[in-house]
Amino acid sequence: MRIKFEQLPRHLQKQTAPLYTLLGNEPLLILEAADLIRTHAHQQGYTERELFTVDHHFDWSDLLNAGNHLSLFGDRKIMDIRIPSGKPGKEGGKAIEAYCGALPPDTLTLITLPRIDKQGQATKWFKALESASVLIPVYAVERDQLPGWIGQRLGQQQQKADTDTLQFLADKVEGNLLAAHQEIKKLALLYPGGHLTFDQVKDVVLNVARYDVYQLSEAMISADTPRYARILTGLRGEGTAPLLILATLAEQIRQLIFIRKGLDQGQSAAQLLQAARVWGDRQRIVMAAAKRISFQSLTQGLSCAAKIDRVIKGAAQGDAWDELLQLGLRFTIHEYWHSRQMTDS
After folding, report:
1. What is the dihedral of CA 209, 275, 3, 58, to 10 degrees?
2. Which of 143, 112, 149 minimizes the C-alpha distance to 25?
3. Per-residue pLDDT, 148
4. What pTM was computed for the model?
5. Average pLDDT, the chain
6. Rounded Cα gap, residues 230 and 209, in angstroms
7. Backbone angles phi, psi at 80, to 5 degrees
8. CA 25 vs CA 79, 84, 116, 261: distances in Å
9. Phi, psi of 59 (to 5 degrees)
10. Which residue has the higher pLDDT, 186 or 11?
11. Buried b vs exposed e over 281-294: b needs ≥16 C-beta within 10 Å?
12. How far apart are CA 191 and CA 179, in angstroms?
């Protein structure tokens, strides 16, 4: 059964299928659809999750064995299978056919594929997926549809803008939905609900210094105290909203908590980085921080971030900028001396 991306929330309200297949090359929408399915599954009692990323070295017997292996505690589980190439090969094709022919009990399976051409859709393995699963093609938002898409997303956070402003924002992100998503979220952090003026949107989109927020996050997890203090001072001088800074730092801490917890459980570093959506050169920095900073320090840092949120919103006493500095120092100075002590001992 095929359904549209827009129909997925309504479908999940009515039923839970044993197999879902996501199909497309739009990363943001694929991620949102996958998150929606996983969240729904968790609410329905699918508390365990196994992640499989298929590459040239993937052993398909691992997938079939995992599907046939019931949880020791009888918990429902999610089988999250990702095939980035969209080409499982001869062995993989047969494994997918066999899997679709005998779906494991108490299991929700989510298969993620890129866009498949007509030749690929004519294969036996794809037809088996199409027959056994709820298949959700996720199409890219066309350039002329982007202003409307941005307007819809703004509406979800109780904001709106006129046609010219939406067109301006669409032009600046050049069809990149991830970039558009980031700008929309920044507008939610910086401005209350209601009508956004052209100047408000322009100031956010054209403020190239906004990327220093991510450099601040990098300085924090790299234990670079002077750089962290310098960037934070610069952001304050440029009038960057403390809430935007806090949101970026808190998200970084949550990402490290996820990776550190996975490492402590013996999970693969490569799979954890992929699941946490860490790419390129940042993988080395993030993994080094996840290994260096203790799980306890990370959770304490997240508690500090919650306190800063209350300070910014006036629900607690304190100076937001001083608190942001202390949050960064917690992971720079404190972790630096901790690592020195461990080395000396």
Report:
1. 140
2. 112
3. 95
4. 0.61
5. 87
6. 13
7. -105, 105
8. 21, 10, 9, 30
9. -100, 105
10. 11
11. eeeeebbebbebbe
12. 18
